[in-house]
Amino acid sequence: MKVANQSFRTIWPDPRCKFVHVIDQTQLPFAFKTLHIHSTEQMAYAIKSMQVRGAPLIGVAAAYGMALAMLDNESDDYLLNAAETLKNSRPTAVNLAWAVNRMLAMLNEMPLNRRNFTAWREAAKIAEEDVAQNQLIGQHGFDLIKSCYQDKTFNILTHCNAGWLATVDYGTALSPIYAAHDAGLNVHVWVDETRPRNQGAALTAWELGQHGVPHTVITDNAGGYLMQKGLVDMV
After folding, report:
1. How many CA atoms lie within 13 A of 2 on its CB side?
2. What domain count does the chain have?
3. What is the pLDDT of residues 26-45, one digit of tens each?
4. Which of 58, 74, 184, 196 gets the most CB atoms within 10 Å of its CB?
5. CA separation for the pair 232, 235 (Å, rounded)
6. 16 in a structural domain
């Protein structure tokens, strides 16, 4: 997706596979900053501190965290310690454990001198799978929006942040909205602020604005009122 008309993903590797770039989401919406992650420990901290957040993105970040470990040391002990460090950064995150276990299964089959190369390749594959899945979500969701759309403003209510900031690119729940907007449909988004961390007000509103999608930030309690008044066409 775009930030100030420049294309970005939320996470991407250095071309030499020496570190990983991530967007620091704790700085949004007031500043757009990227971080260089050089170690498993730094990646675990980024996940724990919510510099990196959103279930799909956390999974990809964990995969790259495993790759960073293999850059330092390809031994069995180091591999297992990296997996434990990453899993402990967000113990309840399903995507995180899934990605770490997938990396473990792949790397355990590799000779030590192949683990670094394999880890970076597999992490990149997980990232590309996420992008492809989100594009499909956008296509299927767009068909649903189009089937309900009439020649007037189509109001969609969102909660939290399920946009491209929560994934590698495109987003999950917001992906169909971007597809509809890009296709010329007159969509407007009611953005729940989403307390206590305000992911809606801070993140969803910011990324919708960057893409030019009309939106209005509302208090969490206002959603029911808007539905009662017939001002929500889809949630």
Report:
1. 10
2. 2
3. 999 999 999 999 999 999 99
4. 58
5. 7
6. yes
